[in-house]
Specification:
Helices cover about 35% and strands about 25% of the residues. It is α/β, with parallel strands linked by helices. The protein has one domain: Rossmann fold. Strand 9 and strand 10 form a beta hairpin. The longest helix has 16 residues. The radius of gyration is 19 Å and the shape is globular.
């Protein structure tokens, strides 16, 4: 395929994430005003594995909250899998988060009194999926992350890596186009962290879009693209850039 044909094909694909001039200002107009994001443009296509990197205070957590529809921008636009989120009310936003975004956090966020199988099945409880189907799909999701024989175990009976695999299975259970992972290896030892990153790569190879928020260059090195946040601005960057704190004020 020619470069021009390849570019045309890529341009015809609906981005999973598309932001234009995205801004976020806290306490606008007051003495405590903080400009957290400054005109962020980002385009992430289906099947990409992207790291958003930057030191504490750079704005990457603010961007994650906007991409995850957990917060609203002060200005600019964001389309998630082709849906302009500014057109949605609170209930519609909740449905979009459920159907289009799978969240994976550093702290796993599993319910301690539920088994691994029940934790994975839980998001489908809001989708009117019959219980039998929920458990079948949850079992298949656990098998997909290598935990087919751990469904009956409580989180306290699982290792940290196994708990994070349960969290990934839960994030994928509604088959969302976007998997958003915030420091997903931060609570894990290096060997287990490598295993989780290998799992993300496999999910990428299967067509999932994975966006990983991190401050760790070794983690970001596993991704296909690195975007660097500095002082609330985002640009294509390098691992070395992401290691250095922003000059001047924080965002």
């Amino acid at each position: 395929m020619s470069q021009r044909a390849g570019d045309a094909t890529a341009s015809a694909v609906t981005p999973v994430i598309l932001t234009r001039a995205l801004e976020k200002v806290y306490a606008a107009g007051s003495e405590a005003e903080v400009v957290a994001l400054k005109g962020v443009d980002v385009r992430i296509l289906p099947g990409e594995f992207v790291a958003i990197m930057g030191p504490s205070g750079s704005g990457k957590s603010t961007l994650m909250n906007l991409i995850g529809c957990l917060d609203t921008p002060t200005a600019g636009s964001y389309a998630c899998d082709g849906v302009d989120v500014s057109t949605l009310d609170a209930e519609e936003l909740a449905v979009l988060r459920r159907d289009k975004i799978g969240f994976v956090f550093q702290g796993f966020n599993l319910l301690p009194r539920m088994s691994a199988l029940e934790n994975v099945a839980m998001p489908m409880g809001y989708s009117n999926v019959p219980r039998i189907e929920r458990l079948q799909r949850a079992s298949a999701a656990l098998a997909a992350v290598g935990l087919h024989n751990r469904g009956g175990h409580l989180p306290s009976e699982l290792s940290g890596g196994q708990q994070q695999r349960v969290a990934i299975a839960r994030a994928l259970i509604n088959r969302p186009p976007l998997l958003l992972a915030d420091e997903p290896t931060g609570a894990l030892d290096s060997k287990t962290g490598e295993e989780i990153l290998a799992l993300f790569k496999r999910l990428r190879d299967e067509g999932h879009t994975v966006v990983l928020i991190t401050h760790d260059a070794e983690v970001a090195a596993h991704c296909d693209r690195v975007l660097v946040m500095k002082d609330g601005e985002l640009h294509e960057g390098t691992l070395q850039e992401g290691l250095h704190p922003p000059q001047g004020g924080s965002a």
